[in-house]
Amino acid sequence: MQIGFVGLGRMGGNMVHRIKRDSDHEVVAFDFDAEAVAAAEGQGAVGAGSLEALVGELTAPRTVWIMVPAGDPTQLTIETLTGLLEPGDLIVDGGNSNWHDDQRRSATLSEHELHYVDVGVSGGVWGLQEGYCMMVGGAQAAVDRLAPILDVLAPPDGWRRFGEVGAGHFVKMVHNGVEYGMMQAYAEGFELMHKSEFPVDLKEVAGLWNRGSVVRSWLCELAERAFEQEGNDLTAIGGHVSDSGEGRWTIVDAIDHDVPTPVITAALYARFYSRGEGDFNNRVLAALRNQFGGHEVKRAG
Fold first, then answer.
1. H helix intervals, 47-166
2. Tens digit of pLDDT for each residue in 177-224?
């Protein structure tokens, strides 16, 4: 099979590498970073200097996989490809797009007789070795057409179609919301042990928990690795925790469906606090305690 790949960052570049390493599929690769294109060429892909050149290298019916940041970069790429592709061609969005955007884009593409599949991808930088867990949405015929690529990128039995367009990114959105809650629970537990009176080695705890414990997981394996690399105190790592949007989208959808998600919501808010975005309300709390009870206030500066 032949496939075009747009976006050769940490995920996209490794996905191209895995396809070329583990199959005979032909990949035409494009990125605005010429070094990333050169790296893909070194792995056996055909490099392209532009989206026009990429489309020109592909034989109809074409399949183009987009692996760029969600939002405007994805939208602009799809709009450009819409003007370059022909009826019957397929666009695949493997980024972290909002599933509502998938449905809107699919409707627009169908007016041009272009097919669309959304693929939620989990696996991070480890996907090259371990394979990518992939959650897929789209018409069955379009997914069947993409299946040979999905089979290479995923570990054995590591991808599923969950419904029409949007279903893949919807399931991935919820996946990331659950991930927020799991990570927050681990973080709180390790902090409690770190501040306890006992000389607990957190690397040893994480390693032990992965041997038969009900809380064993890949995240716990990564915690063990982090403590081994960075030390028990993690002093070299700042406490700012970003979010890429899926947690917020999960909460919005939960509200729309009257589903309580207190753990995921609290985990997202904890990330806000990590950026100092709760500093002002803490100052209000301190001021109120001082006003009604005369409690001491620690003055800034």
1. 51-57, 72-82, 99-110, 127-130, 140-153
2. 999 999 999 999 999 999 999 999 999 999 999 999 999 999 999 999
Residue with tokens 């070094």: 35
Name which of 191, 188, 219, 192 is nearest 206 in CA terms. Answer: 219
Report CA-CA distances (Å) from 85 to 51, 88, 165.
10, 9, 19
Res. 288: pLDDT tops 90: no
The pLDDT, as a whole number, for residue 144 is 98
Query: DSSP readout, 203-217?
Result: HHHHHHHTTT-TT--
Alpha carbon distance 259, 230 (integer Å): 38
Task: Give the closest residue to 223 by CA, choosing from 260, 258, 193.
Answer: 193
Q: Residue 146 corresponds to which tokens in the numbers above?
A: 């993409």
Non-local (6+) Cβ contacts of 27 within 8 A are: 2, 3, 4, 5, 16, 19, 20, 40, 44, 45, 46
Angle at alpha carbon of residue 237, lines to 232 and 238, rounded to 5°: 130
CB atoms within 10 A of CB 128: 20
Q: How far is CA 282 from the centre of its chain?
A: 32
Which of 49, 54, 39 is closest to 2 using CA atoms? 54
- Contacts with 86 (C-beta within 8 Å, 6 or more apart), sequence order: 60, 61, 62
Q: What is the DSSP letter of 32?
A: S
Q: Which residues are catalytic?
A: 172, 179
The C-alpha angle with vertex 16 and arms to 162 and 70, in degrees rounded to 5, equals 55
Look at the block and give the residue holding tokens 């183009």: 64
